[in-house]
Amino acid sequence: MDLYATNPGPVDDSVLYDQDKHVSSAVWEGQERGALRCHEHTSKLDQWTLTSKQAELVKKAGFGYLRLIPAISLDNPLISALVERWRRETNTFHFTVGEMAVTLEDVAYLIGLPIDGEPVIGVTYTTCEAVCLKFLGKAPDSGYTSGGMVKLSWLKETFSRCPEDASTEDIERHTRAYLLYLIGSTIFSTTTGNKVPVMYLPLFENFDQAGKYAWGAAALSFLYRALGNASLKAQSTISGCLTLLQCWSYYHLNVGRPRLNHDPMHECFPFVLRWKGKQSGPTSNRDVAFYRKALDTLKPSDVEWCPYTDINQNVIPEEIKWSLNLGRSKTMLICFDKAERHLPDRCLRQYGMHQPIPEDVLRWERKSRGVDGGIDLSGKMESELSEWSDRRLHIVEGDEDVDDSEYMQWYLGITRKLVGRPIPISSEFQRMNAALRDIAHLADTLPTHGMDEQQMYSVTRIRYIVHECLRDQVGSSTIMVNSENELVKRVRGKQRVRRKGAGKRKRKDDSEQCNVAEEDAQSQLCVTAVVLDAVAVDQSGLCNVGDEVENSQLRIPATDGDDVRLCDDPASVVDDSQLCQMASEVDDSHFRHSADEVDPIKKCNSQPSHAAIEVVPQPSLETSNGVAQQNDCSVLV
Q1: Contact 71, 230 (CB under 8 A)
Q2: Which stretches of sequence are listed as region Disordered (predicted)?
Q3: Other C-beta atoms within 10 Å of 526: how many?
Q4: pLDDT 10s digits, 222-235
Q5: Rounded to the nearest 10 degrees, what angle do helices 152-159 and 168-185 cross at?
Q6: How far is CA 193 from each of CA 35, 410, 475, 543, 591, rounded to the nearest angstrom?
Q7: What is the mean pLDDT of the segment spanning 570-596?
Q8: Burial class of residue 521 in the structure, from the number of CB atoms within 10 Å of its CB (0-12 exposed, 13-18 middle, 19+ buried)
Q9: pLDDT per residue over 306-321, tens digit each?
């Protein structure tokens, strides 16, 4: 079997040193979080009506192409699966074929924002009134604000239509409100769902100056930070320019890509417009698990490393072409407090170059702007600003003599190759359980004649540990005491528990007989009997003979459609507060192992002082050989 069936990596954790915090660790342990909530608020952008003068100011500010991009239907499961592959240690996706990333070049091509210019940074605010009055001429009511953020709905309700006869000052105010709404609903969308920080407003005071900022670099920094945050275990949301992320995936990966409608719009700039409108591909049954499996099995033939080479270059604006060289700059991307490394040296194949083993990534501090207002962040980000100012000095170049196979050999040792388990976790539990039973059988039957004291101690210790593990699994993995509602939530399929024998109370010395009726003649299920001595069980443990019986809340999970029968002494009682755990030591001789097949209509006779529990969910797998032949069933104990 493939090494990665049991060890998904990284083998060498010098690169992915935060693996324990990453969502892939939780997924591997069976802790699914479902699809992320994707916060991008583009659906109401078309409700803004811009005059020709406003459109001219928007273009001056550097957002002429971004405003042309309509709302694109987001594929939340696809985005969620991509996030599971993102690594904040390298700011790249770790796919089976190597590292890839959304780069400055992608930003320029896809959304047409300037990737060169002054860093997007300034003063933070904790209140909205003063800054809104200064740059918008109006201040929102307290119900529309939260700290230094204002609701997008207030901006739209107040400024979405500029009068034709408005003064120059009013036109500029309405345009600033539109720009704040535009960036707050696209490139700088937040997880709050409907708010945008007012700290961006001063950057729009002068529209010509606004056009000199590297808005594309800021958008990418914001997206990198959002991807890094969403890749952590505890996160359930993601923000940032998700249209950029999704369309990047469409261009580079043949995973979830919709069919293209061939019309002239698809030869327009920016290239996101190729995917304009709703998806036309079959996506109704595609959940996170579907996309996760597709990415876990991604082949080189599924990757478009250089997707823009076949696109009509004549539609690309000259100012965009002029800055494309910066797409390979190894630098620091800045958006106020969000400073993220841009590392094109780790994905050179996206530029048509061979990929060598990259240099180590220098760790950097991910800063937060804090809660204090009126602070110019430039003073806190001197080293990051210095890296950005030297961006043209760090353009990575390719090497024709590089062998990609050397990179892949190195890469497979440092990456997390798989996110989803190739073998279900229930089957792996069966393997472990069967192996424990094998060890227990060997330890119980091992001749001890001639052993010295130390050897005897070792054998006894092995017996004790193995039987303890098997006993714990009886308590923790197959017996569940809970309400019916919780059972439905936590266990897939239908589980039915039937008690056999509701006869009168018998004496402890009387033997009893449990008749198991045949439910399905075709299934030919085997019965696994677990016999536990009731003598060594504490009052809080398994049901002791002589206790009173209530309608038990005892639940034994089974596979879908199977019946689980509980055969016990009619005189035995399970209080619904009891977990049936063995609180006192059980002698080794009380563990019985049943390896023989049992006829579905077979009577099982228990000893008077024992409680017999029969589980009929699947064929009996008493050894690891049995598990090797059947690994898609529920847990056996």
Answers
A1: no
A2: 493-515
A3: 20
A4: 999 999 999 999 99
A5: 150
A6: 16, 41, 44, 53, 57
A7: 38
A8: exposed
A9: 999 988 888 999 999 9
